[in-house]
Amino acid sequence: MARIIGGVTTSHIPAIANAMTQGLEQEPYWKRFFDGYEPVKEWLTKVDPDVAIVVYNDHGLNFFLNQIPTFAIGCADRYENADEGWGLKTLASFDGDAELSWHIAESLVNQNFDMTMCQEVLVDHGFITPMALMWRHFPKWPVKAIPLVVNTVQHPLPTAKRCYQLGQALGKAIESYPEDLKVVIFGTGGMSHQLQGERAGIINVDFDLLCIEKFIDDPEWLTHLSNDEIMQQAGTEGIETIMWLVMRGALQPKAKLIHKHYHVPISNTGAGVVVLENMEKQ
Fold first, then answer.
1. 98 is in which domain, residue-wise?
2. Mean pLDDT of 157-164
3. pLDDT tens digit string along 206-248?
4. Phi and psi at residue 230, in whole multiples of 5°?
5. DSSP bridge partners of 149
6. Would 117 be classed as within a structural domain?
7. Residue 187 belongs to a domain with what CATH number?
8. CB environment 46-78: b (16+ within 10 A), e (fewer)
9. Does residue 282 lie in a domain region?
10. Residue 109 located in a structural domain
11. Which end of the chain has less neighbouring CB within 10 Å, N or C?
């Protein structure tokens, strides 16, 4: 049986990818941020996953405002990286696992999630920045990858509760797959930030830190907040934190904290990373 070994939350800010390309990791502005990922890389090397499922939001590369699915999953054996307009260096393509993807898609539909199945997906910075943060030090990508896209762009958006439920259904889907695979899930995006309007540049450190603590030990806390309440606290783009809940829902309610780190500002954004190791079913 496939098993979920754990999950990682991470920001996917495009400026991070530029910093890696330019070799700025030890510059004063960036050092503390990148240092926060060293324990993550060590944990991933230790647990050695076979597949990474990356939960992120597409930034107009595949879905524009005229047609955006609420939830979509890649069902391909290869995913190409393309720049959606930030001038980011494109990275090597990613091997997928179409068989596992189709199994997950069918299981999610049978659990009443109406997924959009994509046999062609171009992956943007929301996907590649987390992958590069974890494995850029390897000569090639050491895992197969599956993109799972959540709409956090065009309203109406899915609720935090619905994203948590999707994660629970995803966990069941993975654990019902007969092949012996180790799966890690990345919940990406956030934390507090807003890119436009009168509140552009908002960072709510207190709310970010509260979200991290609740995410670890009381993940259903965030599901009781409406999207309006989250955006009021964290900014319009801070709503991306609901994608963390997809990862958290896939894990057991009690998970082992391996590492947590928070840093501001990174490109006018609160940046958080959490590593949770999955526990055995009680």
1. 3-277
2. 98
3. 999 999 999 999 999 999 999 999 999 999 999 999 999 999 9
4. -65, -45
5. 56, 72
6. yes
7. 3.40.830.10
8. eeebbbbbbbbbbbebbbeeeebbbbbbbbbee
9. no
10. yes
11. C
Q: Which residues have C-beta within 8 Å of that of residue 167, sequence separation ≥ 6?
A: 185, 245, 246, 247, 248, 249, 250, 251
Which two tokens mark 66?
């005229």
For the whole model, what pTM was predicted? Answer: 0.97
Report whether pLDDT(270) > 80.
yes
Mention every residue, 6+ apart, whose C-beta is less than 8 A from residue 246.
55, 148, 150, 163, 164, 166, 167, 170, 185, 187
Q: Are 160 and 166 in contact (CB under 8 A)?
A: no
Contact between 58 and 122 under an 8 Å Cβ cutoff? The reply is: no
CB 248 within 8 A of CB 164: yes
Number of structural domains in the chain: 1
Q: Which of 127, 42, 44 is nearest to 91 (CA)?
A: 127
- On the question of pLDDT at 124 being above 80, the answer is yes
Q: Burial level of 137, CB count in 10 A (0-12/13-18/19+)?
A: exposed
How far apart CA 169 and CA 20 sit, in angstroms, is 34
**What is the percentage of the chain residues whose pLDDT exceeds 70?**
100
**Residue 85: pLDDT band by 50, 70, 90 thresholds?**
confident
Asked if residue 41 belongs to a domain, the reply is yes
Task: State the alpha helices, DSSP H only, in 84-241.
Answer: 98-110, 125-135, 160-175, 205-217, 220-223, 227-234
CA angle 110, 77, 180 (to 5 degrees): 65
User: Which of 113, 108, 244 has its CA nearest to residue 177?
Assistant: 108
pLDDT at 141: 97
Please name every residue paired with 80 in a beta bridge, in sequence order, or none if there are none.
122
- Catalytic positions: 125, 193
